[in-house]
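We modelled the chain as a single entity of 182 amino acids. Its sequence is:
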Amino acid sequence: MVYITLLALTLALAADSDKDGVDDSVDNCPLFDNADQADADADDVGDACDICPLFENSDQADADADGVGDVCDVCPWFDNSDQADTDGDGIGDVCDTCPVTFEASPSDSDGDGVGDACDICPQTSDPDQQDTNGDGVGDACSGASAGTADTATGGSGGSGGCSTTSQASDVSWWSLVRRRRA
């Protein structure tokens, strides 16, 4: 009788919330069915519930709450659940100061939020990238207006389709992201 009572008590205490046959106390993903307990990055969080299954991230940090873990997020401070990275430089489009032009070492010399590689006036801040006469040199560094020729140089020859609405321009931020991925 004592044996049956202990067995019933043991069974009552053993919980398996996801019904995968693995007790919650040892299940690496207790709320998602994962009987195989796969954990590709060996961070003790099962692949079935790991927000970054190929990179160690036992804390499951997700600063921007986009469902992608910070260590594998191409833009960890701004929501970008689609992880778009048009130019393939490892910086998500919403953080990239030049999202359509690959930059091995992104820079924004004038701090206007437009990367030098696509800034029509890289030495003078001109976040609107206005080029009234359409010559590829920004008005802010040429002083040109519609119908006039520029006398100054300094533009990179066009915006290359780069967005002027990027949310990040700090080169040290990019360096931090690169170091985290290395």
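As a brief sanity check on the tokenised model: Confidence is low (pLDDT under 50) at residues 2-12, 146-182. The chain has two domains: 1-60, 86-182.
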